[in-house]
Structure prediction request, 1366 residues.
Amino acid sequence: MRKNLSVLVIMLVVIGILLSSFSISFAQKAQPRRYYYSTPSEYTKLTGKKITKYNEAPALAELVKQGKLPPVEKRLPDEPLVVDPPEEIGKYGGEYRSAGFGPQSGQVDSETVRVQHILQINPDLKTLTPNIVKTWGISKDFREVTLILRRGMKWSDGTPFTADDFMFWYEDIASNNDLTPVKNTAWTPGGKMMVMRKINPYTIKITFAAPYPAVDITLAKSYIYGRFFAPKHYLKQYHIKYNSKANDIAKKEGFADWIQCFNYHYAYGQNQMDTNLPDITPWVLTKIDEAGNKYYERNPYYWKVDTAGNQLPYIDRQVVVIVKDAQVRIMKIISQELHAAGENPLPVKEYTLYKENEKKGDYTVYLFNNTRGSDWCVAFNLTHKDPVLRKIFNDIRFRQAMSLAIDRKQINDVLYFGKAVIRQAVPPPETSFYEDWMGKYYIEYNPDKANALLDEMGLKWDKDKKVRLRPDGKPLEIVLECTEEFAPQAEMVSEMWTRVGVKTIMKQEERTLFYQRGAANERDAAAWTFDGVAEFSLRSGGLDGSACRRAFGNPINAAILWTTWINTKGASGEEPPEIIKRFYEIGDKFLITSPKSPDYKKLGKELLKIATENLWAIGTSVAPRVIMISNKLGNTPKEGTFAYDYHFWVPYMGDTWFFKR
Amino acid sequence: MEEERVVQIEDAEFSLEKEELYTATQWQLMWRKFKRHKLAIVGLVMLLILYILGIFCEFFAVYDPAKRDTAYIYVPPQRIHFIDESGKFHLRPFVYGLKQESDPITWRRIYVEDKSIKYPIYFFVKGDKYKLWNLIECDRHFIGTKEGYLFLFGTDESGRDLFSRTIYGTRISLFTGLVGVFFSFIIGCILGGISGYYGGTTDIIIQRIIEFLISLPSIPLWMSLAAAMPKNWSPLKVYFLITIILSLIGWCNLARVVRGKLLELRELDFVTAARLAGANDWDIILKHLLPNFSSYLIVNITLAIPGMILGETALSFLGIGLRPPIISWGVLLKNAQNINTIALQPWLLIPGIFIVITVLAFNFLGDGLRDAADPYR
Amino acid sequence: MQLSYLLRRLLYMVLVLFIMSIFSFIVIQLPPGDYLTTYIMTLQTQQGSVDTAQVEALRKQYGLDLPMYQQYIYWIKNMFKGDFGWSFEWRQPVGKLIADRLPMTVVISILTLLFTYAVAIPIGIYSATHQYSFGDFFFTVIGFIGLATPSFFLALVLMYVFNRYLGFNVGGLFSAQYIDAPWSFAKFIDLLKHLPIPIFVIGLSGTASIIRIMRGCLLDELRQQYVITARAKGLEEKRLLYKYPVRIAINPIISTIGWVLPGIVSGATITAIVLDIPTVGNLLYTALLSQDTYLAGSSIMILTFLTIVGTFISDLLLAWADPRIRYT
Prediction:
């Protein structure tokens, strides 16, 4: 008996040792690839390697030798961010060129390569690591955030980057009602402006009036939400609080008052006009020429190094070439004048043209993931002025029938070479509370069933069997409005709907008009894209796609009178039906729930279920994103996701790109 | 001409023709002169063909222009064969069936002739139903096949037959410019005539108005006018209105030159003589002065009509002219206005050729008319 | 020419410019909404809802809440100070934007004008003197093909063809590698590569019509009595040709400068858009799209001014060239 027991114990111990060693090795194997180490000591701790020396670009080394710049050790913060480049350590040098559509627009291929957020989105699109801040923390009730800055970090002109820059932004820009009359919704969870406090020169605490679990997303895209800091030492000369002569300076520069002048000098990103404005990005704007082309030079005080101790970035400068015409842009890419193109998106229709010119243009065409719910979607105006149409549009059978009447395969063949994924207008499958049936909801092409549903609704055919009649006897005719971008699909869908008796006329309009008519509740049906619905965007308030409310956001405006009622708390608009009110209530709850909470998936699933089943927006398909990257560049992604939700190139470590030749 | 007349006088056999020549009316003389101008005849014939195609476009088209078959996207123009693969000659031409393949790397669509399937071409064949001028129901088409497809100009991105669409486009493109040109011409002659003949304050006022109107940049004017149109009007209605408004400005060019010429001519002797003889001003302008540079007027009109057609394409390019689902050459050309098309589907540029042919035809015609308008030379 | 006539003409020019300014201002405002409407919509699609308070605040900031006539007066008043207003889209003074592009606009317009007449007049003369010959036929056809092809279309096709078969890209004025480089021989060559196509495309349609007009007028002149007399008297053909008929036929050509110039500027707009060349016309187009009021209005004024000056010069030339014209 005792012998059996001891054998059992030994066996258990052995099994236990085996299991734990297995689990340890599994844990190590399951360790994801790590790109960022917030400090060199963290790097050493986690990898065992040590960075012994810092290096810099030859041009900068030259300036150091001439005494014009302090040495690299003094320029970097005490603890720079350590980056493990995706492929290899890069070489210094080169001029990166990309296109912009206009002086302040369409510069994604340079801006999102350059931009720096407080937290960094990693290539897996899930992990958020500290970027500008050294570390950060959020309280258990999600109402307080602590940011620890990097000691010794400097602006591009060498001035220290401290908590004062955050406080200047908070007190004198964001809270200043002259400069910022309306506060960004990302700053006002719970309806009240957040409160920022300086604890010491390198510590900031932000408090919110309501739980804000999505603050991590806000911080990971902080650049879009106001940046949260501004160069106080440079801008205070233009601010009336610090410089009583600010208005005189403004007038001298040709502005009406200090507010206009300040805004001119403060503008950053693709809106930046002042070439003297300091920044903390790897390249800073140094020149804008007469045509509007922009030139960004290396920032000698950039606060990142690679694992070999080389100060980033590798590339010397960025040039943004303003080219308004899409055809000229294509020609420039084929002629090797530009190095990357991802924005707009590039039309899948032209894939053959891009692919056939790969050798000539010395670039490669990649197909990235697209996080749109559907590249094209259509929504009926649920608060239509005409009561007959309103009743028809609000009948779920009508929307179901219209979804079934669309031959998505035909659209796919015509526009996407058959390579798009046919799906309904719902968030992408990567969403953590997504269920397979949602994407497949009512997407089959079944005109018989569509006709049956319309018959069931009582919409009889007219005597020539050309068009169905409304309950008031008039023919059922609707106008499907869209902008140029979405016209090809709109044209085809209009035909398909007309075939089942709903006479649809497609009307292509200019953007401005399209927006206006939506806001004025003038539409029957509108076409747009179902974007901004990736999980990041679902969680953060303020975006039109948040909490699955895409169909009601701008510019789709599927129920403008109801959304106005909700947004103005009943002051104007029309009271929505219960389902809508409930949908928004659940959404509001969802927005303040952390992903770690057990309720998160439950709420998310419920929201998605309601949105899907109600078919407020009907989608067709989602095609891959066509991306072109020059073969001369290294450390560039070969696959990935290119979407506004993740701020385009941001996850793909643009400051580690380099010219291989 | 001198030699010809000498021959005719000497040869009595041709006395009948000589008599005809001397007793012919002005119009007969003009026609004779016109006939001599070969290019003009060519132009006239081309325009007649095009206008007939336009008037009866439903009949001449092979398919309904909106009909699409997504199995046949971007088909290049089909080749018509008389001799089949075994070397046999067929009196009735035919086309082969098409098989679609796709390049796996570039996704390019490649169409291969399937030599095992032949579709003979017939005339007056039964095809898609249509309503001629929206009145008469018919289903006979000038040309087509009984089964399968005949894509004479290939297909576009939705699998629609370009030939049929081009033919339908002929109707809209050819007719929409005429109204505007007509108005421009009338107003231009009248106002230019008054301006040049009377001179003085009238001249100065009209001149300033012309100057003002000419210096209006056409593009922003058209854009803002297009935006100011009532939004529920169909694109065609909008276009007509814009055309008319523009013709009210288009007269300026003509008026300016009419004025210039009149300024010279009114000093000439025969005008003074006419005035002394008691002719009133209108008579002098219309009967005496204007015919003197009628050739220039004719040239101007023949340049104006194609100008309107080109104006339509420019408007479509800017996005404010005609738009789908209306079909015109301008709309079809706008579709082809990208590198992708020029590189990979160049047959979509064929409507452009129609534009060029039409403009050429009008100009040759104008030349001939100009020469014919003064038969007494 | 009398001084009073000159003064009167100048006064009229000012009057026309004034009317033009009102008209262009109104015309720009005709489309519903204003610059902010587009801007707000862009904001909305990016960051979510922008509520009415923000709209009003922005409107006030840009001065768009003022009634139209006040905006207009503000604009005109400042114009006398040399301040043409503020561009919303570019966030720069309008004057600077236009001044940056004016040299290139003028250069391209003048080069195109020279090209047009330098090519058209000789061809027109040749066509008239060799009527019905093969040369006449050939040039007629070529001229008309040029006239018939829409400029934007030709520009795009040529851009592609040049790239495909000659290997270089003509979009824009410089290749991206040279836009910032200091002036060098290579940069100059690069510019030369980029200029011919725009000039050719813009000038082509004007060329064709000038050829026709030249040919037509010269033919009319050649049939006149005095020509036959001169020929009979033994005057050699070339001298005969240029001394009288060509001079007379030039008369309407000169008056065409008045409309060819805005035509070039207009055509240049479209071509400049397609080929992405920084001219005032291109600037105007984007300004109209975004309803950038002051920029659009000022651009129209500049273009109008250029045109009026052209017309004025054309009238002067007309009076000088044809002694028969007297002004009552």
About this structure: Confidence is low (pLDDT under 50) at residues 6-10 of chain B. Chain B touches chain A through 26 residues (CB under 8 Å). The two ends of chain B are 9 Å apart (CA to CA).
